[in-house]
Amino acid sequence: MKWNTALISIRSMPDSYDIKKLRPERNKVNPEIPYHFLHEEEPDEHGNLQQVNTIFLTGKECAFECTMCDLWKNTLTTLTPAGAILKQIDYALARLPKATAIKLYNSSNFFDQKAIPISDYPGIIDRLQSYKKVIVENHPNLCGNACVEFNEKLGGTLEIAMGLETIHPDVLPKLNKKLTPEDFREATGFLGRNKIQMRAFILLNPPFLTDQRENIEWTFKTVQFAFECGVDCCSIIPTRPGNGIMEVLKQMGEYVTPTLDALEEVFERSLALQQGRVLVDTWDIGFLSDCPQCFEARKHRLEQMNLTQQFQQPINCNCNY
Ligand code: SF4
Ligand SMILES: [Zn+2]
Question: Ligand 1 pocket: which of 18, 69, 183 to mutate (most atoms <8 Å of CB)?
Fold first, then answer.
């Protein structure tokens, strides 16, 4: 009976309690070492390939606890200690090559002072002086004067990546993100007026939207909305299971895994808008396809479209005729 009540609440509007009680173990992380870092290439706003160093910082877990999020797995349950972020940046930069852009992704909100202590800002800014572009992630409702002041002190330009996720009116409230499309519009207006660049993270197949065709259409509509708001770059992320509640939602029929066909279609249509850069997340996308004949070639095509921002000829296979 208790379990049934829990399922009803998960179906109607999951809250932080539902989400957290279904979580598997978090990973063991060290606050002095980033949990991952890498070097990649990405087109800049002019279409030129830029070299990017990405550091996945270990810090305090995000306060929002969204339904589909699994980033908490590599976070701390306590405040990020002062000075730890600086040690992590030093650790990664000592091992990474030169680059023109840097992403500091902290699995939370860069401008939440519990996640990135304000006393670390001068040290972070010092370490980033040589970068032309600094990209951080932040919830739209946490974009205020601290972003503007941080941008003014950087040698390069600040870009803030924000999860818009979806503008579907029934789905967005169920993501526990405490965000509306109007909040997003307001944040982009503020950042745009302050000459801060923006990218949006947009989900393909968020939970609570289970028709594949509707999923493609709502992802595309969300990309259009983000560009209308003035973002420079849309990054489309296929929603994956793996955080506990997503597995339960899948069993309940409230989440379906996206398909590679759907990711390809929404990418092609979003690029064709020519409103700004469009990227798709190709990390660990094996779960989108069960065809060993074409998967690698199709993944490679998506990577090429990310780099060139140009349509590439589709890969035909028996599975997608
Ligand atoms: S705001 Fe971002 S980091 Fe925070 S819980 Fe939601 S998806 Fe995860
Ligand atoms: Zn195939």
Answer: 69
Please write the tens of the pLDDT for every residue from 267-298: 999 999 999 999 999 999 999 999 999 999 99
- Domain locations in the chain? 23-320
Considering the domain 23-320 in this protein, what is its CATH number? 3.20.20.70
- Does residue 1 register a pLDDT over 60? no
What contacts 25, CB < 8 A, 6 or more positions away?
none
Q: pLDDT tens across 221-257, in order?
A: 999 999 999 999 999 999 999 999 999 999 999 999 9
Rounded to 10°, the helix 260-272/212-228 angle is: 30
Go through 155-181 and write b for each residue having 16 or more CB atoms within 10 A of its CB, e for each that does not.
Answer: ebbbbbbbbbbbbbeebbebbbbebeb
* Ligand 1: residue whose CA is nearest its atom 1: 64
Which residues, 6 or more positions from 85, have their beta carbon under 8 angstroms from its beta carbon?
A: 57, 59, 106, 116, 117, 120, 123, 124
Residue 5 confidence class, pLDDT cut points 50, 70, 90:
low
Q: Which two tokens stand for residue 321?
A: 């005729």
pLDDT at 275: 98
Is the pLDDT at 192 greater than 60? The verdict is yes
Q: Is the CB of 270 under 6 A from ligand 1?
A: no
The confidence score (pLDDT) of residue 110 equals 98
Instruction: Give the pLDDT of residue 50.
Output: 97
Cα-to-centroid distance, 64 and ligand 1 (Å): 6
CB of 163 shorter than 6 A to ligand 1: yes
Say how many C-beta atoms besides its own lie within 10 A of residue 66's C-beta: 24
The answer to whether 117 and 85 are in contact (CB under 8 A) is yes
Give the residue, by CA position, lying nearest to ligand 1 atom 6: 66
